[in-house]
Amino acid sequence: MRLEDETALITGAASGIGRATAERFADEGARVIVTDIDSNGGEAVADELADKGATAEFHELDVTDGEEFHAVVDAVAEEYGLDIVVNNAGTGHPSSRLEDTDDSIRDFVIDVNIKGVWNGCHAALPHMKEQGHGSIVNVGSLASILGLPKQAAYSLSKGAVLNLTRALAAEAGPYGVRANTVCPGFTDTSLLEQYLATEDDPEAAREAMAKEYPLKRLGNPEEIADAILFLASDEASFVSGHGLVVDGGFSTC
Ligand code: NAI
Hints:
By secondary structure, this protein is an alpha/beta fold. It contains 8 helices and 7 strands. The chain has a 7-stranded parallel sheet with strand order 3-2-1-4-5-6-7, sandwiched between helices. α2 links the parallel β2 and β3. The protein starts with 6 loop residues before the first strand and ends in a 7-residue tail after the last strand. The mean pLDDT is about 100. Bound molecules: 1,4-dihydronicotinamide adenine dinucleotide. 1,4-dihydronicotinamide adenine dinucleotide (NAI) binds near residues 14, 17 and 18.
């Protein structure tokens, strides 16, 4: 098993990509610390993993709250050590031109997508540096490498995630800590459903989107989780500061 005896904390693990990552990590023998702002959903995921024989526990965590993030990470690190952190929790916003986007939407997206990732790195790094190893995987987006029209706030936030991760890789590498970003294309999750729901015909919008992809379909959360697993595991022991695009070839054409 690829994560045997390792402890991994995942944010936003009640749903979508985070949930699939929790399941994948559990299959590979990790102790999984499921965290989410959604306590019912998060508890259910941890219970489901435990029912299958995995070691899992849930901690309620709003990633925008730096103090809370530190408290959860400190408690986990003290009890088990902390080998892997996946900063996955994120949010989107309805499509709108930059000049029509409210400051409140911009600030909310920055709080969750940038400060949430920052808080996770800020809390985990002292422990990882002290123990001399650790792997941080941040979840970016195609919007980390492309500027998406009518998604300026989201693009701003996800571009920042990629470059924050690069800075972290340079800074923490000498302590044995790696940091990488996964950049998913459109992936079938509730976040995508919310995005499509703002279109006049969500199903037609989904089909049109899928046609744009060389593989003629959108991604599924398990495919993103596999990429996160690779970067988190020792198989990627010489990979750091990388942005791994998982988009079925969309960004290449
Ligand atoms: P999702 O909506 O299925 O899951 C997001 C999870 O994050 C939810 O469980 C939610 O409760 C949690 N969350 C939201 N705000 C939080 C907060 N402040 N603190 C803690 N947890 C919070 O969405 P999905 O698609 O699984 O998103 C996961 C990540 O993947 C996000 O960072 C998103 O930006 C990114 N992503 C998703 C893509 C897609 O097409 N679904 C494409 C590219 C990136």
